[in-house]
Amino acid sequence: MPAPGSGVPSGGPLPVGAESDERTRDRVRGAVLEHGPVSAAQLGSLLGFTPAAVRRHLDQLEKSGVIEVKLVRGSGKGAGRPARRYVLSSHGQSDLGNDYLQIARTALAQLVELKGDQAIQEFAEQRFARMEQRYQPLLAEAGEDVVRRAEILSRALSADGYVSSANELPAAGALQAVQLCQGHCPVLELAAEFPQFCEAETEVFSRLLGVDVRRLSTLASGSHVCTTHIPTGRLPQEAESARTASFAPTDLQKGSN
Known about the structure:
This protein is of the alpha+beta class. The chain has helices spanning 16-35, 40-47, 51-63, 90-94, 101-115, 117-140, 146-159, 188-193, 196-209, 237-247, 251-256; strands at 67-72, 83-88, 164-168, 177-182, 214-217, 226-231. The protein folds into two domains: 16-72 and 82-88, Winged helix-like DNA-binding domain superfamily/Winged helix DNA-binding domain (Arc Repressor Mutant, subunit A); 116-242, Muramoyl-pentapeptide Carboxypeptidase, domain 2 (2-Layer Sandwich).
């Protein structure tokens, strides 16, 4: 019970200053989610805050376990000190709208007990099949342009709350690629327990993009972002299969060797 005259309310809305701070911290957390790993200086520039102001909110978010610091070494020569970069923690990820997490975890555990691990695989495939069905018409507009398809996929994922980005990597020829990053996973803690979710999502990305993609990192395994490597210097899957088939020796050719 607050002491009389302390200015601390026993109930009701927060004081104006406290409410403003809460909204500001939400903005900082959102910026870390979208741009992390990001420095305090970059956040200040993005949000228009003074260095002192942004550090105050970062310190509060770090103390509450919402964000954490990653030490990143520069790419240049020399033995400089690692730079501090902020990313959303697993706790911060799980706080983003996972109100029914415990219910879902219990239901999936019971599903495994009743029908085994294969039931989780089928459940995950069905979940991402719905995503594939919604995204397919959007990506179809890009034809066989894998880069364009990756950009459309990234925008669709962001619209669904995955905080996604797609960036072309500096390379030439067959090494050309796009890196697809997702800063948020709505089923993060479930995916950490049941990797079938990540596997099913990766397979859907491969079918949507028409190339074999590779997962480099996942939030579920402890990384600060899910990263998918998308080769763009290769032919799409269907064309590649046809090309491989055209070079396969026929029975007649085999017999003549």
